[in-house]
Specification:
Strand content: 35-45%
Number of strands: 33
Number of helices: 5
Strand order of the largest sheet: 10-9-12-17-14-15
Radius of gyration: 23 Å
């Protein structure tokens, strides 16, 4: 695409954004990042929080609003905040990942994030995007439709954010530091949480450490679910109640009703819960526990909150005798359940909310995603396989964070020595990805990117590998939504599998889990100059960026 045409596209788009925002509000927030003393499971520790809250404050806005968040870092750690799922059209500088779109906010300094919410409504979330600080630095983003625009489903009587997270008794920065030092897997969490509370099923959990949702009979509540766990897919269910899924990752879906749902790290889901028509003299656990079929260690525990009905004739004696029912969650390795649930997700694909699935593809990529190894240092002691160090990789390249932000170096035309634009589009040495692993499990290091032409339609197939055991890997695109056009188990077949792709109403998301021992195919349009597509894998990441990371500046890729 010619540079002059890029400039016209950028200029027209900016005029349209300005026009759309003419009647919009500007929502202003201040986030003070600070250390806060918190007690859970009979243990008190100091954690990093925003405004002293864990989880952090909810950011409210309407579709079309401008948002301005001043982040002041009072903590001893470097900090940046990512607005997970926000498209960041022409505001890539405000996306938040440290050393990708910005240098981190150093202790004692501040940074102002400014972005415009365009074409999005639903539930997203924000979190720290450096090291493991997101374990406690996170909170909901609630985007309402424009004033006067109804939901495409019956309006709920009330809406409640539910953040599913993890809790470590130890300092999470010490946990990840130890893992990086030894090359082994990090210690697993001690509990899962609902809105920061572990609930009654854990030893030494006080009554104040249980989230309680008080409801009235005959009402409908929209639960805004967010999985803020670092690396665990979670089942979620409410005893004796059904859940109607109406939205995922701030995109409406064709409603469907389930007893249990599954949600991957970074994903969100809005579900409608209809309460019973009358008070039944009972309470009901809301529970979440992990889904996994890996051989590695994980937190095999269950978090519970309580759904409590308003008693029309309350008394202390009656309250003490109220039974509490538990849901029947799937087995921890119930892959069939997960596959069946995922297959139910379909875009609304209506006249008001169409599914603009790319029908043709300009660029195709095939990424293998998995764990490999790095050799241990000479005279070192490492706790990875056979005395090595674990290393996550994509196409056998483990990402190395630069010391200068990628977007900054690209904008300044000084990318030489910061990153290389030769990331492999396909594995350099194909193998049986889900079969017998190769003898050599070592991966290479690199700060490599793929440069995409602005406006290109992209198809990306991500294939899990069983090199060190198959496992699910979350993938999140910063600044983009994508359509999940296909997925399956085993090795992707480029001749047969694309014939089964859903190009009519596939679910639109910003985060997807690559199935353990399987693959997932996505399509998206590289229509957001200045943002970076960020493929996440535990311990590693890689970048794809539209041509002219700051297209309006007329700067060609170096």
């Amino acid at each position: 695409m010619a540079l002059s045409h890029l400039l016209v596209v950028a200029a027209v788009a900016m005029v349209l954004l300005a026009a759309m925002g003419a009647e919009a509000d500007t929502r202003k927030y201040q986030f003070d990042v600070q250390m806060t003393s918190v007690t859970r499971l009979c243990s008190t520790k100091s954690i990093v929080t925003v405004n002293g809250q864990y989880p952090g404050p909810t950011l409210f806005a309407r579709e079309g609003d401008h948002v301005e968040v001043t982040v002041v870092n009072h903590s001893p750690y470097n900090m940046s905040i990512h607005w997970h799922g926000i498209r960041q059209l022409f505001s890539g500088w405000s996306d938040g990942p440290s050393y990708i779109t910005q240098c981190p906010i150093q202790p004692g300094n501040s940074y102002v994030y400014r972005f415009h919410i365009v074409g999005q409504r639903g539930t997203l979330w924000w979190h720290a995007h450096i090291s493991w600080l997101r374990a406690t630095v996170h909170g909901p983003i609630v985007i309402l439709p424009p004033a006067g625009v109804p939901y495409p489903f019956p309006a709920p009587d009330d809406e409640v954010p539910l953040m599913l997270g993890e809790w470590w008794r130890n300092d999470t920065e010490a946990v990840i530091a130890q893992a990086l030092q030894t090359g082994g897997g990090p210690n697993v969490s001690d509990a899962y949480t609902i809105n920061g509370l572990p609930g009654p099923l854990y030893n030494c959990s006080s009554a104040q450490e249980t989230f309680r949702l008080k409801v009235k009979p005959g009402k409908t509540y929209m639960l805004r679910l967010i999985n803020a766990a670092l690396n665990d897919e979670l089942f979620f269910s409410v005893a004796n109640h059904s859940l109607t899924v109406v939205d995922v990752d701030a995109v409406y879906v064709k409603p469907f009703t389930v007893d249990t749902l599954v949600i991957a790290p970074g994903q969100t889901s809005n579900v409608l819960l209809a309460t019973k028509p009358t008070y039944h003299g009972a309470s009901y656990y809301m529970e979440a526990r992990p889904y996994t079929n890996t051989q590695g260690t994980f937190d095999n525990t269950t978090v519970a909150g309580v759904l409590e009905y308003e008693d029309p004739c309350p008394s202390a004696a009656a309250a003490a005798k109220i039974p509490v029912f538990s849901p029947d969650l799937p087995q921890i390795n119930d892959t069939n359940f997960v596959a069946n649930y995922t297959a139910k997700l379909r875009s609304l694909a209506s006249a008001d909310y169409p599914a603009a699935v790319p029908q043709e593809v300009d660029r195709r990529f095939f990424f293998t995603v998995g764990l490999g190894t790095h050799p241990c240092a000479v005279n070192g002691t490492c706790q990875g396989p056979n005395g090595s160090r674990f290393a996550a990789s994509i196409n056998n390249v483990s990402f190395v964070l630069p010391t200068t932000a990628l977007l900054q170096s690209h904008f300044a035309g000084k990318s030489r020595g910061v990153y290389a634009s030769n990331f492999p589009a396909f594995p350099l040495m194909p193998f049986n990805y889900t079969g017998t692993p190769p003898n050599n499990t070592n991966v290479m290091n690199g700060t490599k990117v793929v440069v995409l032409p602005f406006g290109a339609s992209v198809e990306l197939v991500m294939q899990d590998t069983s090199i060190l055991g198959a496992e699910s890997h979350p993938l999140h695109l910063h600044g983009f939504n994508f359509f999940v056009v296909g997925q399956g188990f085993g090795n992707f077949d480029p001749a047969k599998d694309p014939t089964k792709f859903n190009l009519v109403d596939p679910v639109e998301r910003n985060t997807v889990g690559v199935p353990a021992g399987g693959w997932v195919a996505i399509r998206f349009l590289a229509d957001n100059p200045g943002c970076v597509v960020h493929a996440l894998s535990p311990g590693g990441a890689h970048e794809l960026g539209p041509e002219d990371g700051v297209a309006g500046a007329g700067r060609q890729p170096p």
